[in-house]
């Protein structure tokens, strides 16, 4: 049991975030320091352990370490110093004492009095003392006292023992919000949110405290952003369970029950090991509120949630959480002699929404807006001639102008209470189209079969066969191909006999060709096409169908030619929807070629497709938005791509198109990342990942996690290192795995977590070795060596750097410049470590190697840096 072991454990602990792993290392360091008999070292470790317990979600354990340290300090202040740090710890202890109903209230007051006595003796401001006297009064619901202490706290001078410049206003804003003074709360917080604050608890704490005030003051966009940003920061930390409860409550009060349910389920297991009874009470109450809202909204039937002990129904869990929250509130109120905590729990359980729905993402609000109605031509609105209306409906449907067709049929129904047999047949044709548009294929078949009967009864064989041809096409789409193709072929043959060369014959042939293409028989489809004849509209339809068949044969150039002709003829015919479909298909073919200088034809075609797609064709519009967004990503226009992809995600979500929804979300995440909207990119990527899991698409699930990791890295979130490391472990290719592990090291060393970074770089070096990448091995081992030295393990760093020099010998000789670069960088970094070890002569020799190498490569900047280091060493 050596002192060096203790220091190494403490160094490793310092590289970890607060939590169980860090606490275990500090506890081990305490055992070792006690076993070594070094009381002063044990005292310092115990002080660190108090912080580990406080920030690691185990505040009750901090009572013991704090008391022990305080006793030792009082007995021998000279040996056991850190008096001001102990005074700081008083604040933690006072706050934590109120969170445990089994601790008598007079104990809290006694500690507060002792805290004030010591602050006065030390000549410190009572700013912090007044703050925590206010906190106790607020906990009890004694607002007269709370206001009194708030006034003293607000006017007392700040000093080094005051809470930081972020946490102090955060507590004030929380109180103002609790009292309903929402404008004051927002005003207090504004300077904090506009400042750069380096604090473990900010900005997540103040953003959480502002949720209610943002909502009640109408700042809904700020509320949504505050929730999204703060929850990302608090969700990894069990110590923040009370704040997490506020986010569950926020979701319940803003119509975001689905997100609230996700949060509740993610943290439900923490209730069994909550940091305190108070945080358990808050989380249970918020969870019960959310589940009540789900039940009242009709979303709870058959719904279960996962927790460590197994699945539980919404109703059962709501009962349990309500009982837990109410029971804990009773214990607090019994201890406090007030009804304050019970009132808060009852208020939460009965709370009603502040807003019906607060969208938390840009695409969440899009589906709520109904598409703009397509204007119906005046002749249709005013017409009274039944046959003219039926003609208008047929023509509009052929031109894909569904709204006009539906309006014409509706007008026909108004003016024709008793249609003739011929008119009834045509109306049944329309009813079939309406049913098909609504997604009811079986009903469409029923109408068209009846239409064929009525047409035959009226003596119109051509219309009868046309109706049967439509029936055959739908049967093929439904998978009933034997029956469908028989009908398609029979009706086409009869039309060729009765109406040769007619539009109906051409249309029936087009249906058969399309069905053959969809059935994977494109060559047979092409054999049905002759040189397109008729009006431009007819030619456009035929060329589009030919294009699809050619695509089925893999003949992309000829397919592009066909779609181009379809576009040209559709423009002449002013057939917007037909043009939109052909332009969209042609654009996708052109997108396979790399972008060129000048105007991008594919993007121009997509713009045209969007402009000509009716607003009621939701799925096609969504698809065009998605593809146009992807095209702009390819062109490097990430910010421009975002808006299209947002629209696409919203529309695919509205129609329940899950695969498209997932893929477009991933594209949106990449676009947001490129547009430097990192928080949104992270959240969208997190949404996409589980979707790909459900689709059993491991490749895109990993891509989602990669975007998440990059967004986390750019936001400075330590979780990026874990995400990169997980990706590395899941990657089969060792070279890619090595790069991902190296990125994990990058994140950690950027956050000064050098001991952990050294481990990641060492792992990356092994993977580079497996992949046969000698340069990667040298680079990763060199970085590991530097991180070992920076983490206090200089000797290990020097040994590792010796290994790097040996690894230089394995670099391939086919690129002398690259070898010289790596050798020079290694010499420079090794010189820095040697200098730190006091081995100046060796360090100077390495700097000279670095200067010579960089100079030979004409790398002026690195050469000057190495020369500067050499001169500083020679001056020692």
Question: Would you identify the CATH H-level superfamily of the domain at 380-589?
Answer: Tetratricopeptide repeat domain
Number of helices: 44
The percent range for strand residues is: under 5%
- Overall radius of gyration: 36 Å
- Oligomeric state as shown: single chain
Biggest sheet record: 2 strands, antiparallel
Apparent shape: flat
Compute the average pLDDT: 91
Structural class: mainly alpha
Instruction: Name the CATH architecture of the domain at 380-589.
Output: Alpha Horseshoe
CATH class of the domain at 380-589: Mainly Alpha
Write down how many β-strands occur, each being a DSSP E stretch of 2 or more residues. 2
**What is the CATH third-level topology name of the domain at 380-589?**
Serine Threonine Protein Phosphatase 5, Tetratricopeptide repeat
Share of helix among residues? Answer: over 70%
- The neighbouring-strand order within the major sheet is 1-2
Cα-to-Cα separation, first versus last residue: 37 Å
List unreliable stretches of 5+ residues: 365-374
Pfam family, one: TPR_12
InterPro entries: TPR-like_helical_dom_sf (IPR011990)
Protein name: Tetratricopeptide repeat protein
